[in-house]
Every structure is written in C-alpha cells, then in structure tokens.
Amino acid sequence: MKILVLGSGGREHALAWKLVQSKRLTRLFVAPGNAGTAAIAENIQVKPGDFKAVKQLVLDQAIEMVVVGPEAPLVSGIADFFQTDDQLKNVAVIGPGKKGAQLEGSKDFAKAFMGRHNIPTARYQTFYRDNYTDALDYLRNHENPPYVIKADGLAAGKGVSICQHFNDASENLHNMLLGGKFGKASASVVIEQYLEGTELSVFVITDGKSYKILPSAKDYKRIGENDTGPNTGGMGSISPVPFAGETFMNKVEEQIIKPTIKGLQKESIPFKGFIFFGLMNVKGDPYVVEYNVRLGDPEAEVVLPRIKTDMLDLLEATWNEKLDNSTLDIDKQYATAVMLASGGYPGEYEKGKPITGIEQVKESIVFQAGTKQGENKNLLTSGGRVMAVTGMDKTLEKALEKTYRSIKQISFERMYFRKDIGKDLMSR
C-alpha cells in the first residue's frame, strides 16, 4: 500500500518510523517532512494546508491512504475535501472531518459537547470581543487564582494562560480579546476553573463506532525545569504514566472515552482517527482539560514505539470500520522522550546550526522535528523543537538513563533540554 503522511514534526517522523516496519507498505511519502523522514521515506515539498497540491500528489503517485499529522488541515476540512471529490473519495483519510475536528479547533465547542454528554470537565464561560467587560467581571467575581484563560481557536499549543494574580489575568484577557494576541483564535476566549492535580494524556484510535485505547503518556509543557517558564509545544514525555493504573483507567474509559464516542455517534459526527484526551487526575478522578483530534507531539514519540501491532493494519481497520476485530499489542516497557530545543525557544531563536553525533546514538531512537539537510547534506537545525530522543527499558529510571546518555552524544550550538523529565514520577 502507498501511504502519505502529512506534516513535518517529530510526530510525523515517529509515524513514518512506525509505518516503514509494516511488510505491506510499498511506498511512503511525507509532505513536507524533515531530514529524519527523508532518511526513511520520500519527502515531497507540499504544504498540508494546500489541499489542491495534496490532491495532485495523491493522484500522481496513486496514494491509497493519507495520515494527517497536524491539527490545522483537519480543522480546515481536509477529510471533507477528500470525501466530496470524486477522484479522491476512495482514498483512506485517517483524521476526522471538519465538524469532528472542532473538538480541538474550538474550546467552546468541546466544552459544550462535554456538557451535553456529561463528561467531567472544569466549569467554564465563553466570551467574545464585544463583551470584554462581562469577561472581566466574570474573572473578578466568579473565579479564584490561579486564573485559566484559553483562546478558543488553534494557537499552536500556546493559547493557554495560567495566571497567579488578577492583574496578570486581566492583562492576558485584554491581550487576547482586544489586542488580537492570537488573531482569529482569540476572537473569543474560554475562562475556566483551575483544576488542581496531575496531567496526563490518553489516546484512542477510533473508527467512529469502536475504539482501541493506546498507551497513556505524560507531557511536560513548560520550558524550564520544575515546570517553570512559558508553555512550549512539549519538552518531553513518558509512557506509561505510573499513577494511571487499572482503577483510574477504568474511570477514564467509562466516564470519558465511552461517552465521547457515543456522543459523536449521537450527534452524527463521523470520526476515523486519533482522539487525544488531555486529562487531569484530581484526587483519583479524571477530568478532561482538552481534546486533540490527532496524536500529540512529543507524546507520539513515546506512544508509537510501545505499539507492537502493525500500524498499517490498525489504520486500515480504522478506515474500514473493523477496529472491533483488531487486536492491539502493547510493549510493557517504559518509553521516555526528551526534546532538544534551539536556544531561546519558545521565544526568538536562530536556525541553521550544524547538528553532530546522531549517528553515534545506538541505545535510543532519535525522532527529528526541526531539522533540514544543508547543501553538503549535513544536518542543520530549522525549528524551535529540533528532535526528541526516546529511550526504552523495563523501568522508568533505566529508560531515562538511556535517553540522557544518548543526549550526551548529540550536539548543536545553544542546544537546550530539560534535565528533569520524568523525575516527578520517580517516587510514585
């Protein structure tokens, strides 16, 4: 089977890495990809949001399946584009249509959906630019610090502000609603109750009727150690999450996963793809913080290596609505990923820095993200999050040791990484 993966990050490299292990794969394309995907697949310089160019690529190469990595093309309706085009409608697209993608594309839509289907989440209120004063009054009179303010739309993982003081919260509210901090994404905002607990991510793959629960993971969003500083796209992740045992996961399945799938069916929203449940464990009970409609990044870099089942078989069963007949085999080992970032990220940073040492890494997997090949085919940085280094072993401690040993072999100017990924879970 010929497959196209859309995207250019570490998640897409991980998907490509997993797909090339399938004996049934005949050819793999990644658009636009990065230097890591170029080593195992064929990179095509097509932007995922350019639907006409994607269509031409699919037709020219007789591609049979498209796996959509990032959220933006899903929210823009790439799955609907394929389904309504006579030349493309038989091509399998892994990812929901525009309506299903609103679970991630609009915080307000997701919150209302959870309300309709009795899915546990924090209380909230949505406000628009023309009722800024009402939003300010709500913030002052109905919430307590820490204050949580979220841009309603997509903001590249940076649209959430958690403020300890009212003045900071009101400034963020003003910048989002009136200052256009995130453009259209913050034309409306959700003010939300702060939940005290520990975050984790749970993923499912669903054909819209049945589902398979993928390995749990924990993402580390803050740039600084001990979870300090601004949010990033993710500085590391671990899987499985030690505190997400059988009792807790039973609650997640019964109170969150099943009502979500049934809710999609009840509202006639077809969904073939991944659902990411961003959860908060509040004193042993799960609450939904957010939905994503694709695999997370860097969670994919720890979740996919633990899936022993042929990924192509799993995706094909999803498209053909035969997931209930599939089996999912999970590796019991821990996987730990640490992100190597450009100095200055998530603020301004320089690109084009030579990267050395990747070829020396033998005991971990290196998933490239912000990388490109230079004129002399040397490896260069091209983004804020450059690569994720993933180690696997029987214990969390040993997996982390592998990851950090491997990182010592890699170098580029102003390379930055957190040295405390997973340490908060060691004593659990």
Question: Can you walk through the features of this model?
Answer:
There is one protein chain. By secondary structure, the protein is an alpha+beta fold. It has helices spanning 10-19, 35-38, 51-61, 72-75, 78-83, 98-105, 107-116, 132-142, 166-177, 246-266, 300-303, 311-319, 396-407, and strands at residues 2-7, 27-32, 42-43, 65-68, 92-94, 124-128, 147-151, 160-163, 188-192, 198-206, 211-213, 218-219, 222-224, 228-231, 236-239, 273-282, 285-292, 334-341, 364-368, 371-373, 379-381, 385-393. Among the domains are: 2-98, Rossmann fold (3-Layer(aba) Sandwich), CATH 3.40.50.20; 124-192, Dna Ligase, domain 1. 29% of the residues lie in helices and 26% in strands. The strands form six sheets. The chain has a five-stranded parallel sheet with strand order 3-2-1-4-5, covered by helices on one side. A five-stranded antiparallel sheet has the order 12-15-18-22-19. Strands 6-9-7-8 form a four-stranded antiparallel sheet, with helices on both faces. Strand 16 and strand 17 (285-292) form a beta hairpin. The termini are far apart. 48% of the residues are buried. The mean pLDDT is 96.
Topology:
Layout: E1 2-7, H1 10-19, E2 27-32, H2 35-38, E3 42-43, H3 51-61, E4 65-68, H4 72-75, H5 78-83, E5 92-94, H6 98-105, H7 107-116, E6 124-128, H8 132-142, E7 147-151, E8 160-163, H9 166-177, E9 188-192, E10 198-206, E11 211-213, E12 218-219, E13 222-224, E14 228-231, E15 236-239, H10 246-266, E16 273-282, E17 285-292, H11 300-303, H12 311-319, E18 334-341, E19 364-368, E20 371-373, E21 379-381, E22 385-393, H13 396-407
Parallel strand pairs: 1-2, 1-4, 2-3, 4-5
Antiparallel strand pairs: 6-9, 7-8, 7-9, 10-11, 10-16, 12-15, 13-14, 15-18, 16-17, 18-22, 19-22, 20-21
